[in-house]
Amino acid sequence: MPDVHALVNDGVIKLKKRKIEGSKATAKLTAELLRSVISQQRIPHTNQAGALIDAIKAVGEQLIAANPVELAVGNIVRRVLHIIREEDLSLTTAAIGGLSLAAASDDEDDLERDHPALSAAAIAAAARSTLRPPSLQTLIEDMPSSAAVPHASSSGGDSEEKSKSADKNSRSRKLKHNVIEAVNELLQDIATCHEQIAEQAVEHIHQNEVILTLGTSGTVIEFLCAAKEKKRSFRVFVAEGAPRYKGHILAKELVARGLQTTVITDSAVFAMISRVNMVIVGAHAVMANGGVIAPVGLNMVALAAQRHAVPFVVLAGIHKVCLHCNL
Fold first, then answer.
1. Tell me, what's the pLDDT at 145?
2. Model pTM greater than 0.70?
3. What pLDDT is recorded for position 49?
4. What GO terms fall under cellular component here (predicted)?
5. How far apart (Å, rounded) are the C-alpha atoms in residues 152 and 180?
6. Bridge-partner residues for 235, per DSSP?
7. For residue 214, which of 245, 255, 258 has the smallest C-alpha distance?
8. Confidence (pLDDT) at 169
9. Pairing relation of β-strands 234-239 and 260-264?
10. Closest to 72 (Cα-Cα) out of 275, 278, 285, 230
11. Quick one: which of 35, 29, 21 has its CA closest to 83?
12. pLDDT value of residue 68
């Protein structure tokens, strides 16, 4: 198995030298690196979630600093941190619920005769664990030894210690397994984001409509082509997007896919907007206040669409949503 530090350093170099660009590619790289970090991370018996969170934060800060322009990197790091906290909370809640259920199912007389301190100890441990951030575990460790197995002999004490160690190791493995499974689902969402968005194309694009777009975006291409595959006939105007002229790249791709496409200058957008039924664009990032980071010239298109009351649609995957500025 490759060394995780070598993998992280290689990822940092790729981001710094911009060998990998674009929100989707950088998001995928980040999720894969964090999955490797989690799978190889040795976590202690106590504060397991805290150890994972510290490791992810350390790697995430390196990746973000390598190319701060790629906001999808920070988005994925925050998403993985959220997954770890949620899985830890879920496991702790399940442990508390199982303990409460077991205590309630026992007969009160048997409980008082065989385990006189179990109920009070369990409640006290559960209360302490729920008030201890960032990890909610330690329920088992906080229980007094008399509550688990009576110390009748030294062999009984040894078996109790082995049982505690086994429970801790089992919980540690389950936490890592659950987090890795959730990260795999995240990777699947990133890989299929274009297709998932494109499924909604027929709900927005209707027959004989005129669509205006700007810049180049894989999501927009798949969205428009999905509508065409559903036998929708429409025309696309593409603003050229000076000074990088990414609109020409998009127009060539759309023509190659069989769409009726016309390239217009940026200065002609306001004159053409009255003939347009809808503006459909991609975005580099979607901010918490509803704003978007997008290609140069999109603000002009948005103002023209607002002036003529033309619907304005922004296509973006979940990995482009920026809700926070820090980890």
1. 41
2. yes
3. 87
4. cytosol; eukaryotic translation initiation factor 2B complex
5. 41
6. 210, 260
7. 245
8. 64
9. parallel
10. 285
11. 35
12. 92
243-271 burial: b if 16+ Cβ within 10 Å, else e: eeebbeebbebbeeeebebebbebeebee
Q: How many CA atoms are closer than 13 Å to the CA of 56, on its beta-carbon side?
A: 33
Q: Is 19 helix (H, G, I), strand (E, B) or coil?
A: coil
The residue with tokens 């949503």 is 321
The low-confidence residues of the chain, meaning pLDDT below 70, are 1-2, 98-169, 324-327
Residue type, 243: P
Please report the sign of the dihedral spanned by the C-alpha atoms of residue 278, residue 281, residue 287, residue 291: negative
Q: Which two tokens stand for residue 176?
A: 């890592």
Instruction: Identify whether the C-beta of residue 134 lies closer than 8 Å to the C-beta of residue 85.
Output: yes
Query: Tens of pLDDT along 307-317?
Result: 999 999 999 99
- 285 contacts 293 by C-beta, under 8 angstroms: yes
Residues in the chain: 327
Cβ burial, residue 312 (10 Å; 0-12/13-18/19+): middle
CB atoms under 10 Å from CB of 217, counted, come to 25
> Under 8 Å CB-to-CB from 119, ≥6 apart: which residues?
103, 111
Q: What's the rounded Cα separation, in Å, for the pair 98 and 87?
A: 16
For 144, other C-beta atoms within 10 Å of its C-beta total: 12
The CB-side HSE value for 261 (13 A sphere, CA atoms) comes to 23
Within 240-302, strands assigned E span 260-264, 278-282, 285-287, 292-293
The answer to whether 224 and 250 have CB atoms below 8 angstroms apart is: no
